[in-house]
Amino acid sequence: xxxxxxxxxxxxxxxxxxxKPFEVMVTGEKDFEHRxxxxxxxxxxxxxxxxxxxxxxxxxxxxxxxxxxxxxxEYKGFEVYDKCVSLMSFYxxxxxxxxxxxxxxxxxxxxxxxxxxxxxxxxx
Length: 124
Fold this sequence. Notes:
This protein is mainly β. It is built from 2 helices and 7 strands; from the N terminus they run βαβαβββββ. It starts with 11 loop residues before the first strand and ends in a 10-residue tail after the last strand.
């Protein structure tokens, strides 16, 4: 996969998204990533001593293979969700059910989009 942004020397958090979350994030409608509390995401967000890891960018993928859609976005940190339950809905039917203890990764400006044809999506 060829990207125009040089990731050399950048601290990059790499995450895979399914279709619906990818669609609303690549357009900027959803400017955060929600992850349920678990060992896998915690190993990405914290070091072995429990300190928060710091990243420059987040690289999101949708699917597998060399031609999978992706986008690169600024990383703005994360927080642990501390409200009871929140249900958020988006244009394509995606709903996000955030609960206490889940992780909310804050995203900034989208810097690059690759292998994605937004003309396939009538609402874009």
